[in-house]
Specification:
Elements lengths: L9 E5 L9 E2 L6 E6 L2 E6 L4 E10 L4 E6 L6 E10 L2 E8 L4 E6 L9 E4 L6 E9 L8 E8 L2 E9 L5 E22 L7 E8 L5 H18 L3 E4 L17 H16 L6 E11 L10 E10 L9 E2 L15 E5 L2 E5 L9 H8 L4 E6 L8 H11 L7 E6 L5 E3 L11 E4 L19 E8 L6 H7 L3 H10 L4 E2 L7
Helix pairs in contact: 1-2
């Protein structure tokens, strides 16, 4: 497993000697082309509209984006470059022939363009520098950008109300041509690793012992696949059977939990595994409780060595016989900030939104909502519409009775469907396709690129104004490291 987030400064350089990596989204059409050879990316637009290339390097304040142009190569047209986050943008337009330079932003409460000036046209290096800046009358930081051509500062725009994480872009507005020798971005360390490997284990069993046997099998499959984080369903240790006496048998639950921990410790390369089970905590730790002990819907990560991570619980309304935690769940697992809510928490988007505001780009949703209804295509469509698109984060939904999947934050020109991995029962491999039918225990996994998620919508909710920021910032949970030992 690899989950090292380097503390060193970040630098990413492309000289086009190798195929473009996952950071790049280049989808030419009949009106424009982008052809690469070592040291030269030939960009030509014949379009009257926009021809744009998008990059997702998790850009942030402190970054410098540099575009090296091939000396002596033809250049013409309105070259545009900048930053994009959700519907927000900082867009520089530079006429390569006349030297007209403008800076446009999404801030339509300020005159646009934010800046218009004349500059030189004889240059071979373009730098766009993004720094933090104050925002008058607002309690959060904005941005300041500088455009530098060779070593000459051509433009500065201050006090831009722009989100703290974004994508990059460059292209043409109308016809144009340009040869690019290199593209690079450098700046402070990124807040999270670029990739993590996520797995799903879906199962439902008639008793706790069988459920634990299945979980052990899931951990072994996750280890074989190189999974970093394995997500299982709601109360996956015991199953969710409110009328079953087993769910009130504390001794049984604890002995089976210990058996599972021992099996994890004996599994080479075991992932961090999210499980759930009923647990009893003192009533004085639960707001408004009058019972000596309160039975809660607990979830936590079992670490690769078999030890238990800090406890979490379902946030909002709970099942018959169990209570909820009332605290937002945000943990750092394998260097990745993870927000977690359980089943019915789906109806309360603050559960994950507050975590995304704090930096989570991976949202986990263990559930025990019963078998999905409808055809497989209907279930996929319904779940895609309902699972997490407003978070601008990866979403992992694991339902005990079926229909589990890992969801990309949004569709793009390159990615036409948000589902990046699904258990077989939710695919054409289901023998009952197009109808849905359970297929028993199921495993699915995917290596996801966390830099493809910016958290833009919750971050804009946080930054909706002074009052919103004051209220939401008080609700943002602290990040708890999964390897921290926390007392009950």
């Amino acid at each position: 497993m690899t989950f090292i987030s380097s503390p060193a400064a970040y630098e990413r350089i492309t000289d086009f000697a190798q195929p473009l990596d996952d950071c790049w989204e280049v989808v030419p059409d009949k009106d424009w082309s982008f052809e690469t050879t070592p040291g030269n990316a030939r960009f030509e637009s014949r379009s009257e509209g926009r021809a744009e290339i998008y990059l997702r390097p998790c850009a942030m304040p402190g970054d410098t984006v540099e575009i090296g142009l091939l000396p002596g190569a033809p250049r013409a047209g309105m070259f545009t470059f900048g930053f994009l986050a959700g519907f927000e943008h900082i867009r520089v337009e530079l006429d390569l022939t006349r030297g007209d330079l403008t800076v446009h932003t999404h801030e339509f409460h300020k005159p646009q363009p934010r800046l218009a000036t004349k500059t030189q046209v004889d240059f071979d290096r373009v730098r766009l520098v993004w720094e933090s800046d104050c925002l008058p009358q607002l309690p959060f930081k904005g941005g300041r950008i500088s455009v530098i051509l060779d070593d000459q500062c051509a433009a500065v725009v201050e006090q831009i109300d722009f989100l703290p994480e974004s994508n990059c872009m460059f292209g043409f507005n109308g016809p144009g041509e340009l040869s690019i020798a290199s593209w690079s971005i450098s700046g402070p360390p990124r807040p999270r690793p670029e990739y993590t490997h996520v797995g799903i284990w879906q199962h439902t069993k008639p008793c706790t012992r069988d459920s634990v046997d299945s979980l052990i099998n899931g951990v072994r499959k996750g280890a074989e696949a190189g999974v970093d984080i394995l997500v299982t369903a709601e109360t996956s240790l015991t199953g969710l059977r409110p009328e079953d006496p087993e769910l009130d048998d504390r001794g049984l639950i604890q002995s089976e939990l210990k058996r599972f921990q021992e099996a994890v410790a004996q599994t080479r390369g075991a992932p961090y595994t999210l499980i759930g089970y009923p647990a009893w905590i003192p009533g004085d730790r639960v707001e408004g409780a009058t019972c000596d002990f309160v039975k809660i819907n607990r979830h936590l990560f079992v670490r690769p060595d078999g030890s238990l991570g800090p406890p979490m619980a379902k946030v909002h309304s709970c099942e018959e016989g169990m209570w909820h935690g009332r605290h937002y769940n945000l943990q750092r697992v394998c260097g990745v900030e993870v927000a977690m809510g359980v089943c019915h928490d789906m109806n309360y988007r603050d559960t994950w939104g507050t975590g995304v505001m704090a930096g989570a780009r991976l949202c986990l949703h263990p559930a025990a909502g019963g078998p999905p209804a409808g055809t497989i295509d209907e279930i996929r469509q319904r779940n895609t519409e309902g699972h997490g698109s407003e978070m601008d984060a990866f979403w992992v939904h694991v339902n005990a009775a079926g229909g589990s999947a890992i969801y990309y934050p949004r569709t793009t020109a390159r990615l036409q469907e948000r589902i990046v991995a699904a258990t077989k029962d939710l695919t054409k491999d289901n023998p009952s396709y197009p109808e849905y039918a359970s297929m028993g225990d199921q495993f699915a996994h995917a290596r996801i690129r966390l830099y493809d998620a910016n958290g833009s919508f919750p971050l804009r909710t946080l930054r909706a104004g002074s009052k919103a920021y004051e209220c939401w910032s008080k609700l943002i949970p602290d990040i708890v490291d999964v390897d921290t030992d926390v007392s009950e």
